Amino acid sequence: VSEFMTRDPTPIDAGLSLADARDRMASERIRHLPVTRDQRLVGIVSARDLMSLESMPGVSASEIYVENAMSADPVTFAPGTGVGAVLDVMADQAIGAIPITEDGRLVGIFTTVDAIKLLRRALT
Questions:
Q1: Where are the beta strands (DSSP E) in the chain?
Q2: How, if at all, do strands 12-13 and 32-37 pair?
Q3: Helix axes 18-28, 47-54, angle to 10 degrees
């Protein structure tokens, strides 16, 4: 999967606000952020997660932390994992992005956009 993943993805600290996450997603033009605490991966948050919470009455994006919106302990793979195995899990579990870790350290992310690029490459 290392050949096709997005390297050095933009993480966000679990203690930052949903507003911070939304701003980072907008500025980076991405839909998923790996969530870290003390530089260790602890979760992942998606634009859909943010929209769900922000649409709830009385919820202020600047007062809720990313750790309250993230999916904790996400499925991860090592860089040497075959892309087929990663795609199987993404399809079977309806996952849009999978962090790629090495020795517990975030080194990449494989998203549906990466999968589409891979498919386009295979078809040309």
A1: 6-7, 12-13, 32-37, 40-46, 71-72, 97-102, 105-111
A2: parallel
A3: 140
C-alpha distances out from residue 87 to 5, 59, 120, Å: 12, 35, 15
Tell me the pLDDT tens digit for each residue of 6-52. 999 989 999 999 999 999 999 999 999 999 998 899 999 999 999 99
The distance from CA 106 to its chain's CA centroid, rounded to whole angstroms, is 11
- CA pair distance 58, 48, nearest whole angstrom: 18
With beta carbons less than 8 A apart as the criterion, state whether 64 and 18 touch.
yes
Which structure tokens are listed for 77?
A: 């793979």
pLDDT tens digits, one per residue of 56-95: 898 888 899 999 999 999 999 999 999 999 999 999 999 9
Note if the pTM is more than 0.85. yes
